[in-house]
Amino acid sequence: MELLKKNKRFEFAIFENLSLTTGRTLFGIFLGLLASGLLIALSGVNPFVAYGALFRGAFGSMQAVSNVLVRASPLLLGGIGVAIGIKAGVWNTGIEGYMYLGAIGAAVIGVLDLGLHPGLHILLCIVCAIVLSGCWGAIPGFLKAYKGVNEVTATIMLNYIAIYLTNWVVSNFPLVAEVGAFYPMSKQFQATARLPILIPGSSLHPGPFIGIILCLILHFVLNFTPFGYRTKMLGSNPFAARYAGVDSRKQILMIITIGAVIGGISGAIEVMGLKRRVFMEFVTGVGYESVAVALLAGGNPLGVILSALFFAALKAGGATMSIETGVASSMNSIIIGMCMLFVIGFGVIDNRKLKKIVSTDKDPENDIAAEKEGEK
Residue 33 and residue 162: Cα distance in Å, rounded? Predict the structure, then answer.
């Protein structure tokens, strides 16, 4: 009987864990859209008409779908870089800076005519982006893990340094900068260093599919490997993790550095697949949107796919909704805010339920021993 009760509690705990992931994201988005629809109705516009226009703008044609995927590319990679930190209880808000460093790394190799095969040239650009962004991410990782410096403060400050460093590189660094350009930018990437266009007449490159594959890989890593177990243990209870032998400082350094590497790959893909150059402030705000993507996904790698596509669809279809119905363009931000509010709210409720389960899940043998001890 006791075994049956424990199994039921275990099954309920699994259900609670699942509700923190894709199911919670879907339900939160639904309620966010519902609440936003009420606001649209109050503004005098039929919400069904408005959402219909938004849907057509995002998915009404192959060109529109390609646009959504292209917009989702940096959010997928940036979101997964933040999400892995959330699982470890670390807020890696430096994705924007890592994207700039990754773009610089790709540009240093990508603008050179090395006479290489396209596959090898692209690979070298990615490797250079990984090295540069990884070294950059190791700075806040070391400060957090070994010096106790708040990672949010460190990464945000380094974001500004990365932005201004990129601005200097594309303006004054002779190897990379386009001298005499009307706007600060790098030289154009060599044809062998550009990602291929998958659909002629569109800007769709392999970036979004690389992001989806990485989300799937990290989902597997977090759930079926010792590294993932240590990461989630550190995020759930750092004291228990240290007691179990987890080197929390090393784990934190690795987690932040991995997030930085993924962010660097995102920046490299953005300039190699879409921009074809590094412009001054070429991804303004995208890194911080990646934090919102990870939050909306509840730190779940599979949820990142959904939330990144959702953000991208709002961006792509929002203009159509505004033009056709007269809804203010700021409604996109309101929809995102509403969805995040509900998703995070459900997360708080689920965490409280799980704590209640843990607090009431006592071993009967320990209860009996405690009662005998009390009688003495």
Answer: 36
CB-CB contact of 208 with 72 (8 Å): yes
The pLDDT value given to residue 68? 93
Question: Topology of 16-359 in CATH?
Answer: ABC transporter involved in vitamin B12 uptake, BtuC (1.10.3470)
More confident residue, 61 or 139: 139
pLDDT band for 14, please (50, 70, 90 cuts). Answer: very low
- 349: pLDDT strictly greater than 80: no
Per-residue pLDDT, 251: 93
pLDDT score for 263: 95
